[in-house]
Design brief:
Largest sheet: 8 strands, mixed
CATH architecture of the largest domain: Alpha-Beta Barrel
Distance between the termini: 59 Å
Strand content: 15-25%
Structural class: alpha/beta
Low-confidence stretches: none
Radius of gyration: 29 Å
Length: about 750
């Protein structure tokens, strides 16, 4: 096979080594414009897991590289005069020049041809090769030549960073957070060989411009950074290597191959340096591509197999990198955290390290954060611990007004669609009762509608008939009498999403017959074929407001501990908030302040009708996932208005506003919205959205991203989810008396 690789970086060299080892007769040519020793940057980082991959792929090459490694286990975080250290992380630094030198020698020894000084401007010249590998990096000529086939997307980020070196050796991966008159500066520093370290400086666009660095030469940058970090550098100098201030760009491609042409490394994808080395990704691409070619002699099948294998791993890392880079873009948000929590927040920022995972790496550090968090929870709730050991974060108490929750796990409102004329029945008793016995600190009813016309479907529960009070009270009293759980009612009006079929019959689909009139902020149907809602008049608003007041009073009679208003998911009150569903030209449309006017009227009316000692929460959609809709910054403004109106906690969800939304799903995908609101507004938040493990819950809480965690499907799958989480962590969650024999049950024996 004749292989031409355009670009001579680590991926090209490693791929050449693997292919020559597999089939010495392969004719492999690597074309590189620059000398290998002229490479950009200073050091690269490999995790222990990556090193294991390298050792398995080619032990001889790995042994040569390992002799160049500088290994460390600790991460050191310098923050507000404190130094917080965490161990057990397992990384190695390596000079980029040493890496290329070792790989280059291996290539030459195996007979790979490396042509230095060849500047490829037209990859089509090499189209007659059996395989053309585009390993030409961020500014890939291969990618740009065949742009219509690869269909790249480039996301340029806001922060500025510069890649520097220093002669100061760092014994750990080191973060500095330092403020001056211009703003906050972040440093990522690590040693990659004896006497040399990488020293990356990052800051916001505003701070960079204010410092005059938009006009800086390399020498100016060194002068500025050496003065700013004089104490941290301890007399050592900074080094440059094409050290220009840049914006990080995330690259994705719709396809990684076209015909006999394939992309690897930065030509195919990039991931922010705060999560992993681009070199690591590139080498892993090379391993996967070589493996696919050995499994499939036909190139087109091999390239399909290569992408199928690598894309999920790369996209997973890119998602983690996206969360991590956003953390560094928004670090100012966290600068008021206590040092220990700041460090935990930093370490778990990408979701790849969790509370439980960190406990394996550094048990003492997690023990310290648990102790701190439990102490803070005791101060907030006035509920002392009953044992010497700190409670896991999820089992610490939390107080809202006079309501004290025994733990921070919440059962999300989940529509069941089995009521008749709004009446809850035995199903709801068992559904909610079993999850209360299951140990959750707080349960919510399903979305409970304030009028018959406000129901989503004929099977939805309500709070609009006197008979509803007794039915709900039966459920509330069962939970109160038999468990330590608290129960909240979520009140809503479905608006333009009313008069639809039950979920299993057709989600949000209009009823085939028996429809009732529906209302909304504007006369916009949910689907083009859905009912057209009536645009609400002032009289309609007054009527709906009275329905909410009545429902709140009835909820108090039923004995609920907490009341939540539903301002999310495109239902009636949400339809006023989103510009996609509110096209009014009166005082209830236009600006966000105007669009919030009616929802806040309802909130104020309900707050006045609900006992002052009981809390009220509001569920909001933080983003509509659709062009022209609500954005996370708008959600901050919504939460700020709610706080000003005496809301106790926001339940931060997202989407479901319009039918053509394109949500960005993923693990904990809505938690960042709760995190931002909690820190920028200073209001308590509940995080919801693809939270499924107790490790996730403990991590979210200990990092300060939310005060409560709301789980839906996890509780449908396992009503005793909280008890199982307690068991897994060795936490003695009390059982109801009828289950007292379980106190001595030890299933592990």
């Amino acid at each position: 096979m004749r292989i031409v690789t355009i670009g001579g970086g680590a991926a090209a060299l490693y791929f050449g080594i693997l292919m020559k080892k597999a089939h010495p007769r392969h004719e492999i040519t690597i074309l590189e414009r620059n000398r290998l020793e002229d490479t950009y940057g200073f050091g690269v980082v490999f995790s222990d897991a990556t090193q294991n991959n390298l050792a398995a792929a080619d032990p001889e090459t790995y042994d040569a590289l390992a002799r160049e490694f500088f290994h460390w286990d600790d991460i050191s975080i310098h923050y507000r005069g404190h130094v917080i250290r965490s161990g057990g992380h397992g990384f190695s630094g390596l000079s980029r020049r040493a890496l290329l030198r070792v790989l280059g020698r291996r290539c030459k020894a195996l007979g790979v041809c490396i042509e230095v000084g060849t500047d490829v401007t037209d990859p089509a010249v090499y189209a007659d090769a059996d395989l053309v590998v585009g390993a030409d990096g961020f500014n890939s000529v291969v990618r740009s030549t065949y742009v219509e086939h690869f269909q790249p997307t480039l996301d340029e980020r806001s922060n500025r960073f510069v890649w520097l070196g220093t002669t100061r050796p760092f014994p750990a991966f080191t973060f500095y957070f330092k403020g001056d008159t211009h703003g906050l500066w972040r440093v990522h520093a690590y040693q990659y060989e004896q006497g040399h370290s990488t020293f990356i400086v990052e800051t916001t666009e505003a701070a960079w411009r204010k410092a005059g660095l938009d006009r800086a030469s390399e020498d100016d940058t060194v002068e500025f950074c050496e003065a700013l970090f004089k104490e941290e550098l301890q007399g050592h100098r900074l080094l440059t290597n094409r050290s220009l201030w840049r914006n990080f760009v995330t690259i994705k491609n719709a396809s990684w191959s076209h015909g006999n042409i394939v992309l690897v490394g930065d030509a195919a994808h990039t991931a922010h340096f705060s999560v992993g080395s681009g070199t690591k990704l590139a080498i892993e691409d090379a391993i996967a591509l070589a493996g696919a070619l050995q499994r499939h002699p036909a190139v087109r099948f091999a390239l399909t197999d290569y992408e199928a294998e690598r894309r999920p791993a790369v996209e997973s890392l890119q998602r983690a990198a996206q969360v991590s880079l956003q953390w560094f873009e928004d670090t100012e948000r966290y600068m008021n955290l206590e040092p220990l929590q700041f460090a935990f927040n930093l370490l778990t920022r990408s979701l790849r390290i969790t509370h439980d995972n960190l406990k394996v790496r550094d048990p003492k550090f997690v023990e310290t954060i648990d102790e701190w968090y439990d102490t803070e929870a005791e101060k907030q709730s006035h509920v002392p611990r009953t044992t010497h050991d700190a409670r896991p974060p999820m089992f610490t108490p939390f107080k809202l007004r006079d309501l004290v929750l025994s733990n921070r796990v919440v059962v999300s409102p989940m529509c069941q669609y089995v009521a008749e004329d709004g009446m809850p029945n035995e199903w709801h008793l068992v559904h909610l009762g079993s999850r209360a016995i299951g140990g959750a600190g707080l349960l919510f009813t399903e979305m409970t509608d304030v009028s018959r016309e406000g129901r989503i479907s004929p099977g939805c529960t309500g709070m609009y008939k006197p008979e509803h009070i007794k039915a709900w009270k039966r459920i509330v009293e069962f939970i109160r009498r038999n468990t330590s759980s608290k129960i909240g009612v979520q009140l809503s009006h479905a608006g333009r999403k009313a008069s639809t079929q039950r979920m299993w019959e057709g989600m949000d689909e209009p009823l085939p017959d028996g429809n009732w009139p529906i209302i909304s902020a504007s006369p916009i149907p949910y689907f083009p074929y859905s009912q057209v809602p009536k645009e609400m008049t002032r009289a309609d608003m007054d009527g709906v407001k009275q329905d909410f007041i009545r429902a709140a009073q009835m909820s108090q009679e039923a004995g609920f501990d907490l009341l939540e208003l539903h301002f999310a998911h495109g239902y009636l009150l949400a339809s006023f908030i989103s510009p996609l569903t509110n096209q009014r030209t009166d005082e209830y449309g236009g600006s966000l302040e105007n669009r919030m006017r009616f929802p806040l009227e309802v909130f104020d009316a309900v707050r006045g009708a609900w006992p002052a000692h009981k809390p009220i929460s509001v569920r909001i959609s933080a983003v509509d996932w659709a062009p022209g809709g609500m954005q996370p910054g708008d959600a901050v403004d919504v939460a700020r208005l709610l706080k000003a109106h005496d809301c106790d906690i926001t339940d931060v969800s997202a989407g479901q506003t319009v039918a053509d939304a394109k949500p960005q799903y993923g693990r904990q995908f809505q938690t960042p919205f709760a995190d931002r609101i909690r820190h920028e507004v200073g209001i308590a938040t509940m995080a919801v959205g693809n939270i499924s493990s107790y490790q996730d819950v403990n991590t979210i809480l200990a990092a300060g991203r939310a005060d409560l965690c709301v789980l839906a499907r996890a509780h449908l799958w396992d009503p005793y989810w909280t008890r199982h989480a307690a068991y897994e962590q060795g936490y003695p969650l009390p059982w109801p008396d009828p289950y007292a024999t379980l106190k001595r049950y030890k299933p592990w024996l």
